[in-house]
Amino acid sequence: MKHVIGPGVLLYCAMLLAACTSQRPAAAVPPPDAIHFVAASWGRPTIEWTIDRSGAGRYRYSERNGSSEDGGFRLVTQRIKAGAAGFDTIRAILRPVERYVVLPCKKRIFDAPYGSISWRRADRPNTLNFDYGCLSKTAHAAFTQFNLANRTIAEWAASAEIIETQDIKRTSPLPAPL
Prior knowledge:
Layout: H1 7-21, E1 34-41, E2 44-52, E3 56-64, E4 73-81, H2 83-98, E5 114-120, E6 126-131, H3 137-157, E7 162-168
Antiparallel strand pairs: 1-2, 1-5, 2-3, 3-4, 4-7, 5-6
């Protein structure tokens, strides 16, 4: 005996399948109060920045100062003023990454820079730790966005006021985060 599926059942199944596979638009996530990025290598900060909704923030980078034997480097901190549009630019660059809690990573190259990025909100801060040695496609895409945000912030800071320099030796305590 043959089983015949009527057109009504087929239509019902098609509608049920469509309902199961369609995605609702993601709820709008309110903008963070600030975004903070920090990267380091072997415990030494290499780049750090923070920007708030008004576009005010700070940018800190390290540069070699002294010989490789004494491990000396200088931290330079600059004030940035990018305006609210600047904040919106950085948020738009990082929006594809903001949804992650963890970056998937199966293969890893050790001794690569690492760090974290935080979207600071009063109600729920979101921090994503990362390791540039991660070889996954998702992590690589995130690193591309981080690098674009870092270049943008660095361009704004290029002519900005230097508000602090700190010479750091191997035995010096590291400075507090921005």
